[in-house]
Amino acid sequence: MRIRMLRMLIIAVFATLFASCAKNDSITTTEKKTGDRPSIAETKAIAEEAYIYGLPIVMNYAVMYEYSVDKSSPEFKAPFNQIKNEARVFTPKDTAIVTPNSDTPYSFLWMDLRAEPVVISVPALDKSRYYAVQLEDGNTFNFGYIGSRATGSEAGDYLVVGPDWKGETPAGIKKVFNSTTQFPLAGFRTQLFNPADMPNVVKVQADYKVQPLSRFLNRLRRRNARGAPRWHGPRIWPLPVRRRSSSWESR
């Protein structure tokens, strides 16, 4: 278990809550009943809930940092809103994700939806080949799937929107997926039948596409060549709590 990372997650919670309980021995029964201060048992329960709630967010941020922020990391895949295809199977050297598959070469797309939604396009595939695009928000909640079992093997364009988007579904979009956070991940898995099948997987991966909604709607010319909307917010990414050789230290 990644203990050092988890300790930092709840240190602020404990510092705040235990400060209010430092003089717990002097708290009377009446004070406890009126709720002036939480008891030790209540403090532990609150800290446990914060730990459980915050753990997925912290661990997911660490992977995002490795995959799309830190270009010096050996785990780096691609900048936000760009697909990175892996024409290989994963090995124990791939440590950012704990248990990757060994028979579905991956493609990764970490999305930044602050400026506008993105459109993920998939090709038509032979029905004998399994593929899946797992859509996961910053809380590690799977808010949708594209793929042979979820949406079929036909070609299609799918819209991924952030929590603040209130637009209408554009023509040509087969389905809209709503992320509860602005930085969701799309994990593509393409079935590999055997080692000789890798060139076929590469061809499939090459047909996975992503583009901003504005480009999909062909509105760029109407923007006076300014291009798609851009996010002008802060570009500072907090360094994950503890890393060793650009990967999380596991215990």
Question: If you had to describe this structure to a student in words, what would you say it looks like?
Answer:
- The protein is α+β, with helices and mostly antiparallel strands.
- The chain folds into 2 domains: 3-69, no CATH class; 84-223, Immunoglobulin-like, CATH 2.60.40.1610.
- It is built from 5 helices and 11 strands.
- It has a 5-stranded antiparallel beta sheet with strand order 1-2-8-4-5. A 4-stranded mixed beta sheet has the order 7-6-3-9.
- A hairpin with a 2-residue loop joins strand 10 (243-244) and strand 11 (247-248).
- Helix 1 runs antiparallel to helix 3 (40-69).
- It is globular and about 65 Å long.
Properties at a glance:
19% strand; alpha+beta; globular; 5 helices; 11 strands; 251 residues; 5-stranded antiparallel sheet; disordered C terminus
Main-sheet strand order equals 1-2-8-4-5
What is the CATH topology assignment of the largest domain?
Answer: Immunoglobulin-like
What is the beta-strand fraction? 15-25%
Tell the overall outline.
globular
Q: How would you state the average pLDDT, rounded?
A: 81
Classification by helices and strands: alpha+beta
* Number of separate domains: 2
Instruction: Give the N-terminus to C-terminus distance in angstroms.
Output: 5 Å
- Looking at the overall shape, the CATH architecture of the largest domain is Sandwich
Number of helices: 5
Following the backbone from N to C, one meets helices and strands in this order, namely HHHEEEEEEEEHEHEE
Give me the count of strands. Answer: 11
